[in-house]
Amino acid sequence: QVHLMQSGGEVKKTGASVKVSCKASGYTFTSYGISWVRQAPGQGLEWMGWINTYNGNTNFAQKLQGRLTMTTDTSTNTVFMELRGLGSDDTAMYYCARSMIMGGYGDFWGQGTLVTASS
Amino acid sequence: QSVLTQPPSVSGAPGQRITISCTGSRSNIGAGYDVHWYKQIPGTAPKLVIYANGNRPSGVPGRLSGSKSGSSASLAITGLQVEDEADYYCQSYDRSLSSVVFGGGTKLTVL
Lengths: 119, 111
Prior knowledge:
Shape of chain A: globular
Largest sheet of chain A: 7 strands, mixed
Low-confidence stretches of chain B: none
Radius of gyration of chain A: 13 Å
Number of strands of chain A: 11
Order of helices and strands of chain A: EEEEEEEEEEE
Strand content of chain B: 35-45%
Largest sheet of chain B: 6 strands, mixed
Order of helices and strands of chain B: EEEEEEEEE
Helix content of chain B: under 10%
Distance between the termini of chain A: 41 Å
Shape of chain B: globular
Oligomer: heterodimer
Radius of gyration of chain B: 13 Å
Number of helices of chain B: 0
Mean pLDDT of chain B: 97
Number of strands of chain B: 9
Structural class of chain B: mainly beta
Largest interface: A-B, 20 and 25 residues
Low-confidence stretches of chain A: none
Distance between the termini of chain B: 28 Å
Number of helices of chain A: 0
Strand content of chain A: over 45%
Helix content of chain A: under 10%
């Protein structure tokens, strides 16, 4: 069965960086990309970006370009999302989701990782 | 302000039919990009309930259906049940932004 397991919650100072992992199991890892979506407290869903787990190509939301990195480790079927220069408005639940193609739907989702950024 | 527009809330009594609209533009839904729908119970991850405009993943009841016309899409739920109460989000792709876009979400209350 498809399962995405995310790393635990993080508390960071503003200006710091955070790295969240998403470990996939139950399918052929490199056949599907991974999207990252975040949700600020009480707010809606915001797409952050997508990584092609086969070749490492990425697409990011314009507002996050320059602060966001996504990488993949095919030896452990894990995708990493790193966000730098955290501001208080980056406080959110961060989700990874399996998405076959860039712009496609997320058919399986991780449980979420709460990132709190505060001074 | 979301690129895709959804009503903030809808409500219905058990057994009734409700629809949730998702209005876009010629750079996203109107350009032919697919619309997908998610159900989110507060405190949990979103769950895909409709993909590619009108297709249901395995395990999603047939009471849920999706449609798309022009620059808009709709999610319909018939025979409303208490367990349908949740937030619902539409998603598409916007070619002007070169980005996935979501609607602002609709809170469904079953009275």
